[in-house]
Amino acid sequence: MIKVFDDFDLSARNTFRMKVRCRKFIEYDSAKDLETLDFSALPGPVLSIGGGSNLLFSGDFPGTLLHSRIEYVKFFDLGLEKVPVAVGAGVCFDFLCAKMCAEDLWGLENLSLIPGDAGAAAVQNIGAYGVEFKDIMTGVSCYDTVLKQKCSFKREECGYGYRESIFKKPENKGRYIITGVMLELSRKPEPRLDYAPLKAAPAKSRVLVEARLAGIQLVV
Predict the structure, then answer these.
(1) CA within 20 to 30 Å of 88's CA: 31, 123, 154, 162, which one?
(2) CATH architecture under which domain 2-68 falls
């Protein structure tokens, strides 16, 4: 389902809480919803946003903002060490990290507390403590606003670098709207503790960090 709002207040839609508005704000629940939109008729520019953590508005936005409410998390547990997980672009990324830890699935724990949604993680190639999003993702599902059809990209096709991807290239600006990501996590405990600041941390702090990444709660 699509919800359309005119002259929309963005105060709660950006982490800097800038008191600005946009001409039109559209939320959608599925990739199919995007196929019903006439992008040429929307006030421009058209911009997709997640949690608003990478936006600093200097004034009212004159165009259209799109926000995903595609919020599924699906497991494909076949009894193997590696577990594919499909995630909707609108899922809060920190919620996803916590959910995967609760399911004893390894790979996302170093990325805990990074703000934003799963779709934005694929655009930005977020990273922390020696782990990047590209290390645990296998593919991205999108809607191509130019060809007006669904499409997908494998990890090697996404052009990932440090906070970089093909989705940030000027020639692709506004073209691909990410609708979902596919991850590959592990049932085998594999804490990543080789990040230099972790190695240099005092012994007590390192124990606390290692315990947190391993999902162990310590009383100190």
Answers:
(1) 162
(2) 2-Layer Sandwich (3.30)
Closest listed residue to residue 75, CA positions, set 89, 88, 85: 85
Q: Report the CATH architecture of 73-186.
A: 2-Layer Sandwich (3.30)
**CA angle 173–178–180, rounded 5-degree value:** 165
Segment 166-171 long-range contacts (CB within 8 Å, at least 24 positions apart): 167/122, 167/123, 168/123, 168/124
Q: Is the peptide bond before 45 cis (omega within 30 degrees of 0)?
A: yes
Residue 192's pLDDT is what? 81
Query: What residues does each domain of the chain span?
Result: 2-68, 73-186
Instruction: Read off the pLDDT of residues 35-92 as tens digits, 9 standing for 90 and up.
Output: 999 999 999 999 999 888 888 888 999 999 999 999 999 998 888 899 999 999 999 9
